[in-house]
Amino acid sequence: MKFRTPVLLALSALLALAGCSTPTATPESSPSASGSASAESTTGTTGTPPTVDRDPQGDLPTITFDGAGIPTMETTPTDPPADISVKTLKAGDGDEVAEGAYVKVNYAGFLWSDGSQFDSSYDRGESTSFSLNQVVDGWKYGLAGTRVGDQVQIVVPPVYGYGDQDSGTIPAGSTLVFVVDVLGSTAITTDALAAATATDAELPAGLTVEGDLGSQPSLVYADGSTAPAESQIIVLSEGAGAEITEADTVFYHMVGGDWGGETEVDWEVGYQQVPSANAIELLGKKVGSRVLLIYPADESNTEAQVLVLDLLASVPA
Questions:
Q1: DSSP class of residue 170?
Q2: Which of 45, 230, 267, 303 has its CA 20 to 30 A from that of 59?
Q3: The domain over range 190-316 is classified in CATH as 3.10.50.40
Q4: Secondary structure (3-state) at 276
């Protein structure tokens, strides 16, 4: 059973992230998937969703591309805009990127002040993927509403980027300019959960899982109940979506904790994701399913644990 440690660490990290209000990401993780767990959204600093200008009329820095399609930026003497500004350089005809979607992009980032580049997936020779719920507001709100196939220029004022703190080679108070090719997008919703069919599977004595399909479940323990001595994987409801394979990244909501103890919930915070290689318990399960995982106490004094995972979506690598 490989899921126990990664999934509990993911829950702890996500709950900790929800309590933060200022960004701490490095430039490399500013929107990249490799650092998305620390690329905190700045929504807490602004209170409400920011204005996004999708038809900017002022002068923006000039973006040019070499023969390999790699962008560079020429500065402009005008003052930067106060709002997140999105200029379409090339229009795509794919699906619209939904709020909170999981996206795949190529991008380069520049400083408005001098045009210097601080990060680029083009230079690394590979695209990157991340959730719009895990990045700064300039990305979260700027990319939502674009389409797959779009190439856009996004100007991110400091309040929607890294604010008044340095972040690697990005000085405090910097306006950032990104060039982004939107390569793919997956909307992560609870729609697939409501289409599942309950299995009426037998649960361990003393444990009840309550809650309608498509909504947050809860764990109820009978007084004096004891945890099972063996690991168990129980499909509580079977979804109608695709089967999860070894190549997938899996997206899910989770409720869980120690047997009989306080339950931690991520539904209010946002979905989580894990490579299926770290979640072998989910291989072959269908998107939309609700899966109960039970882990007995072990020799390292870890308490018996219970997790309920609602499988929202999967994306092939």
A1: B
A2: 45
A3: yes
A4: helix
Strand partners, 180: 107, 152
Cα–Cα dist 94/97, whole Å: 9
Q: How far is CA 195 from CA 42, 212, 252, 303, in A?
A: 34, 11, 15, 34
- Phi, psi (degrees; rounded to nearest 5) at 34: -60, -25
| CA-based torsion, 123, 129, 134, 138: positive or negative | positive
Fill in the amino acid letter for 56: P
Please count the other Cβ atoms lying within 10 Å of the Cβ belonging to residue 77.
Answer: 5
How many residues does this entry show for the chain? 317
Q: How far apart are CA 25 and CA 19, in angstroms?
A: 15
Distance CA 216, CA 233 (A): 19
* CA 125/CA 227 separation, integer angstroms: 49
> CATH classification of 21-186 is 3.40.350.10, yes or no?
no
Q: What is the DSSP string of 81-125?
A: PSSEEEEEEE---SPBPPTT-EEEEEEEEEETTT--EEEEHHHHT
Exposed, middle or buried: residue 155 (CB in 10 Å: 0-12, 13-18, 19+)?
buried
Pair 251, 271: CB distance under 8 Å: yes
- What residue spans in the chain does CATH classification 3.10.50.40 cover? 21-186, 190-316
Can you tell me the distance from the alpha carbon of 48 to that of 14, in angstroms, rounded to the nearest whole number?
21
Ranges of the chain whose pLDDT falls below 50:
1-2, 5-6, 8-46
Q: How far apart are CA 108 and CA 54, in angstroms?
A: 19
**Global pTM value:** 0.77
| Rounded distance between C-alpha atoms, residue 245 and residue 84, angstroms | 38
Q: Which of 165, 50, 58 is nearest to 99 (CA)?
A: 50
